[in-house]
Design goal:
Blueprint (H helix, E strand, L loop, with lengths): L6 H19 L4 H12 L1 H10 L8 H24 L7 H24 L11 H8 L6 H26 L7 E7 L11 E3 L3 E11 L4 E15 L4 E17 L14 E8 L4 E11 L19 H8 L4 E10 L2
Parallel strand pairs: 2-8
Antiparallel strand pairs: 1-3, 3-6, 4-5, 4-7, 7-8
Helix pairs in contact: 1-2, 1-5, 3-4, 3-5, 4-5
Length: 328
């Protein structure tokens, strides 16, 4: 036999390696999505069946096709289950490498088994072969009609699957909004300061809204108490410390779990009044509600207090830092 007798297995090896390259260098290409379907739903079962049954008499073409699809659906989850008990886990790169190794190893085993078979099964694709497999000439008109309907249904299903893959539904839309300590960790926040002393936090935003978003950030210094008798929050003082906006493009969520920031800024502030304060960071998307005029710099007598009340109730995306300020 020559290389043409192993064309199917050599093609699977080549396409598996090509998919690895596409994911590495062209992760958003349409070819990657098409190859990915075959890579998961057909290749593993095909090389496994071909390695097990190299002789032509053992299985016919339709049985090999059905078993290739069915076994692929069984093999891939089993490989994922095994990966779950390894340090690498069920992630894109470990699954890709594992399936590539599986396809290559069993394709080589299938090549060896076919080379030593007495009457090896070698796939030949032609109209005459398809008619022979379907027993077209001996079929009744009803059987032919049902066969045509079945073929059309398969083609329609493949087309629908291709559309779903190439036009994926948008995932959950959300925005990351966070504050970190000056060392870039969720720790060591400036919660105790002296009057006039600088405090620094890292403020971060990441856009996962599937569209460009202009974010408006308001930073408020608030003194409030909670009346347990009336179950009401009483705001005593409310000062606007700062305001800025930033426009960010959509940032895909990393499936590998390798989190990276999209936008961060070191924010330094000072408080010139002693007492127990709350520093509120309010986030608005695209539009910022209008602000009334303060009274001597204090917004406590205006409807701006509703911002803080809404933030407490979770109606506004917000962050809060409790700070005790002491006299020097």
């Amino acid at each position: 036999m020559n290389l043409r007798d192993y064309w199917d297995l050599i093609t699977i090896i080549a396409l598996s390696l090509l998919l690895d390259l596409l994911i590495a260098f062209y992760p958003d290409s349409l070819l990657r999505k098409a190859l990915g379907l075959a890579f998961v739903l057909f290749f593993p079962g095909y090389v496994f069946i071909t390695a097990l049954f190299p002789e032509k008499k053992e299985l016919d073409n339709l049985e090999r096709l059905a078993l290739s699809l069915g076994l692929s659906i069984a093999i891939v989850p089993l490989i994922g289950l095994l990966l779950n008990y390894t340090p690498w886990g069920i992630r894109l790169i470990p699954i890709l490498v594992s399936l590539t190794i599986f396809n290559v190893i069993f394709a080589l085993v299938a090549i060896y088994r076919r080379a030593n078979a007495i009457n090896p099964w070698i796939p030949r694709i032609s109209i005459e072969k398809i008619k022979e497999e379907l027993e077209w000439e001996q079929s009744s008109r009803l059987d032919k009609a049902l066969t045509v309907i079945l073929v059309m249904a398969i083609i329609t299903s493949i087309g629908t699957l291709a559309y779903v893959v190439t036009h994926p539904r948008a995932g959950e839309r959300f925005t990351e909004f966070y504050i970190l300590g000056p060392e870039g960790k969720a720790d060591d926040y400036p919660t105790e300061l002296f009057v006039g002393e600088n405090g620094t936090v890292i403020l971060g935003i990441a856009n996962h809204e599937y569209q460009n978003v202009t974010y408006h950030v308001e930073i408020w210094l608030v003194n409030l108490t909670y009346d347990f008798e009336t179950n009401r929050t009483i705001i005593h003082n409310m000062y606007l410390m700062d305001y800025f906006n930033v426009t960010l493009p959509h940032k895909p969520v990393s499936l590998e779990g390798n989190w990276t920031p999209q936008w961060e800024v070191n924010y330094t502030f000072t408080i010139d009044k002693p007492g127990k304060w709350q520093l509120w960071f309010l986030l608005f998307k695209d539009e910022r509600p209008p602000l009334p005029e303060p009274i001597n710099g204090d917004y406590v007598q205006t409807n701006a207090t509703q911002r803080i009340l809404d933030a407490i109730e979770g109606k506004i995306q917000s962050l809060k830092l409790n700070i005790e300020v002491r006299e020097i």
